[in-house]
Amino acid sequence: MTAQIRSVFFPLLRLHWRLVLLVLLGVLLPLILVAHFTDEIFREGGYRWDQAILAWYAAHRTPALTRIARDLAVIGGVGVLPVITVIVAALIAKYRSHAHAWFLVLALAGATLINVLAKVAFQRPRPDQLVAVLIEPGYSFPSGHTMANAAFGIALGLVFWKSRWGWPVMVLGVAWAVLIGVSRNYLGVHYPTDVMVGFLFSVAWVVGLYLVVRRRWTVLATPVPPASPAQTTSAEGN
Length: 238
Fold this sequence. Notes:
Elements: H1 2-15, H2 17-42, H3 48-59, H4 63-75, H5 81-95, H6 98-122, H7 144-159, H8 166-187, H9 192-213, H10 229-237
């Protein structure tokens, strides 16, 4: 029986090892880390370094950095990021693929919904207002800004993954999400663990969504070349 299982399992694993690796590292591992951090925060009293990092940021604020962090909060917030997403999705739909455009929109919408449900479920208070630059309503865990921007950046990277722009777009998308998360800690409106869990949630969600819809995608590589004049004339003659 064991030999039969091996004879079936190992060939499948060799054939689909990339898919298995993506499931393990892109979905299961982030969810395991989310469960670990959540248990530590809400059952074990949290991490001391959460407060220590916020105190460090508060001690190193400057007017210029604060202005940049505020601007990032606006760009990555609910008033601007959805508009950017719709514009980018419209361009992708026009020049590339409707399936990829919908994937980008669904990635952001799903991350937003997960964030709302998680905040209602956990109801973690915001950090002490004495260390915060901004006073924001709602709960702290997980970071909505981080989740939304991570979902947007990672999804955009996956949209272009099979093109020559795959790696650059993915790196820029992840870097943007990290920058947004750091700015939330700098402003004192989220604990570092809020940001970390928000990022991990979005990784699991977007990669999981990608695994579900990827077979419906057309390959995003180079655009279809325009027809030659001879082909156009022939088509018109027919």
